[in-house]
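Translate sequence into structure tokens.
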Amino acid sequence: MIGYLVAGVMAGIHRASWGAFKDSPYEGFEIQKYFRSLLFGGLWSIFLFYFLPRYVNQTPIFYIFMMVILLDTLTVEIFKLFFRTEDQKKYKIPSRLHLWKTEIHSEFSRRILGVGFVCLVTLVFYSLFSINLKFDITGRLVIGVLLGFLAGAFEAVGGMYKDAPFEGFEPLKFFRSPIVGAIAGSLLFSFQTNLGVVVLATFGADRMLIESYKTFVLRRRSGKFLSKKPLYLNELSLRKYLVFPYIVTWIYLVFNFLGLMVK
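Result follows.
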């Protein structure tokens, strides 16, 4: 369990660091939000430790890390979309559920839709874990590219539906996720045959890579905020301290990947 728990906490640090780096200049750094991902990461890793043996004899830590990235992201985003009550004035793109440009103000409706969405996602993911692919490495590579592309396309459609009404449709942005997903899927299917493990890890890898590129390479501001200039100037100097734990998590992930290749 210790290996899973470390992987989960490291994944939580990874996600919390990129999120705080990107958003803190516009909404301030909140320590409870940072540690929330560490807590969720640890809890999800413990869940996977007890859940996965029913379907997979052994799941490499490399996959656990990326699965937790996805599960932590889903937990936070579902909470914000369906269950959190928050003033939306600071947002250009509402964090609450909206139908195109129309926000759903009924708390009851949002929560009912949230429960239904959680049940649907749980059913789909649960079904995937019962499937183990019997193909050789070439067949798995082909399927990995296809499923990775579809996973990325699913993310792209969701992102377009959420963002396009407020900032327009960007073709390059739309096709970025399917391409990254195809690359990640081809790699991940090379070392694992369980469909659930690989699909969840592919979603997680797609999110990791794209957010890393946007946040630390392009240094783009978060487009969800109404303000185009940082509101918390102190955070611009303080957020450099978030880079170190972020880099440490990448070193941890690469180390585990190299260990997987050696086996």
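Note: The mean pLDDT is 82.
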